[in-house]
Amino acid sequence: MIGFLRGLIVEKQPPLLLIEVNGVGYEVNAPMCTFYRLPKLGEQVVLYTHFVVREDAHTLFGFSSKKERALFRTLIKINGVGPKMALAILSGMETDAFVLCVQHGDAATLMKLPGVGKKTAERLVVEMSDKFKDWGLNKADDRTEGLIGIDQVELSSTGYIQEAEDALVALGYKPADANRMVSKVKDQGDNSEALIRLALKAIVG
Predict the structure, then answer these.
(1) DSSP 202
(2) How many angstroms separate the most distant Cα atoms in the chain?
(3) What is the pTM of this model?
(4) pLDDT of 95-125, one tens digit each?
(5) Topology of the domain covering 66-132
(6) Cα–Cα distance for residue pair 109/92, rounded to 1 Å
(7) What would the pLDDT profile of 41-66 be if each residue is shown by its tens digit?
(8) Under CATH, what is the fold of the domain 4-63?
(9) Are strands 16-21 and 24-29 parallel, antiparallel or unpaired?
């Protein structure tokens, strides 16, 4: 089991990261909540990881905090929720926001996330409510040191609108929906991660 990676960021194309660790490049799938906190290309990052092994693929997932990883691991234990949907949930909502939805029985908000229908949203509320009794909200968590905010992230100055749409499609949105979501906010951000964040915020509210 790979518990964490410490290395240099070589590529960032949401939801995929390429991290170089001692000359080896690791492809890591990460939710947008992690992308928002990444340092610049070429700088060092620490990601807490979860390794998923299937017959057709071995996939490594990375998170900026143990809390995010813990929620991911809890989600994939729910019937009907696989790693891809869990990644989409973490991308569409901050961990504490998701916990509040579950605690308040707000299935309607969860249904706004890609791939989450009524039955899945209701199952999340019912099966996860007891798991969050001791979840610390609005407290400093164990995010890795040295991570910085989205305003400081260095991104490509060209093609970022298409990158944002591609990322939303990778998270589970239909191409037409991704195009519409990005079109509504394209004048409010100057990089792909900003557009993704604005588009997801507009959907979830």
Answers:
(1) H
(2) 47
(3) 0.75
(4) 888 888 898 899 999 998 888 899 999 999 9
(5) DNA polymerase; domain 1 (1.10.150)
(6) 11
(7) 999 999 999 999 888 889 999 999 99
(8) OB fold (Dihydrolipoamide Acetyltransferase, E2P) (2.40.50)
(9) antiparallel
